[in-house]
Amino acid sequence: MSTQPRVTAIFFGQPGGGAFNAAGVAGIRRAAARLPVAVQEAWQHDPARRADTVEEAARASDLVIAHGGQGEEAVRQVAPAFPDVAFAVTQGRISGPNIACFEVLQEQSAYLAGALAGWWMQRGVAAHLSGEPVPPGLRGRAGFAAGLAHARPGARLLTGFCGNQHDPALAKAWTAAQAGAGAEVQFQMLDAGRPGAIEACREAGIRCIGNVHDWTREDAVFIASAIADNGVTMEAAIAAFLADRWEDRRIGLEDPAAVRLAYASDVAPEIAARCEALRIAILGGAVAVPEQFSGTEWKP
Q: What three-state secondary structure class fits 297?
């Protein structure tokens, strides 16, 4: 391995849009600034060309990092043809001789978000909205649903995947429909489509719970944010590669810089205290966060 390994980080979507990709970009740039690697960034918004993009990166790299569950299938297809190249999938759960996955456990902060929603809302109807039903998003939805059920047994959850993480108009239409169906709060697992969901929540007079980073600092419509800073997975992947320890790594609530629940200033202290007690119970093993959801899908 040369003193300056070539690393290509692949992002799925458009540059400049969405917190998930923004966190990944920030992470890869932090890694490039402090570690002895030569980093390139590649973008692909067309799902049909994901495998092509991974293959192109593999031909010019020692390490390819596919950012997000959208990259799982492309890496699964391409990695066997490049045994001397290391492949990482952030938020992934696939395996292979030259594949490792690096993950922040967003389902853990999502569980706390679900519990907060259950303790905060009045009428007992919450919503969840994401784009593509990739495995990390499914696990996050499962965590939110379980936390909601823990705090408020019998609560109704309007949960759906609109089909696109990056379409504000589509996210707005789904959110308006969820609000019209009685939702009091919406958990948003979106990327560049999030502005549309935020606008619809504001128009309907309901609150949001964000993800990835602390949205409560950016907009008063957010009551909380299930932080899961995926940028740390970029740094973890490169560090593992340089140390020649190519194995999966998962990061959860034990690292609050990466995974935690942030609260808006108007969240009642007693609700925040209950969520904190629940965090301690998860870390201690008294509460298990599930990865599967067996409820009903909702569509407008």
A: coil
Q: At what angle do helices 19-34 and 231-242 cross, to 10 degrees?
A: 30
Q: Minimal CA–CA distance to 96: which of 109, 111, 107, 85?
A: 85
Mean of pLDDT values over 191-206: 95
Torsion angle defined by CA atoms of residues 81, 85, 90 and 92, in that order, rounded to the nearest 10 degrees: 40
Q: Which residues contact 244 (CB under 8 A, 6 or more apart)?
A: none
Q: N- to C-terminal Cα distance for the chain?
A: 53
Distance CA 161, CA 109 (A): 19
- What is the DSSP code string of 71-104? GHHHHHHHGGG-TTSEEEEET----BTTEEEEEE
Mean pLDDT (the chain) is 95
Q: In what order do the strands lie in the sheet with 38-44?
A: 38-44, 6-12, 63-67, 86-90, 99-104, 249-251
How many other β-carbons are positioned within 10 Å of the β-carbon of residue 161?
21
Tell me the backbone φ, ψ of residue 165, rounded to 5 degrees: -75, -15
Closest CA to 125 of 183, 204, 181: 183
Q: What is the DSSP letter of 288?
A: P
Average pLDDT over residues 230-250: 96
> Do residues 166 and 188 make contact, with C-beta atoms less than 8 angstroms apart?
no
CA 136 – CA 38 distance, rounded (Å): 28
The pLDDT score that the predictor gives to residue 17 is 66
- pLDDT confidence of residue 266: 96
Distance of CA 215 to CAs 130, 188, 220, Å? 16, 11, 9
The overall longest dimension of the chain from CA atoms, in Å, is 60
Tokens of 298: 């909702």
Instruction: Output the six-digit token pair for 179.
Output: 């609000």
Location of structure tokens 């949960």: 159
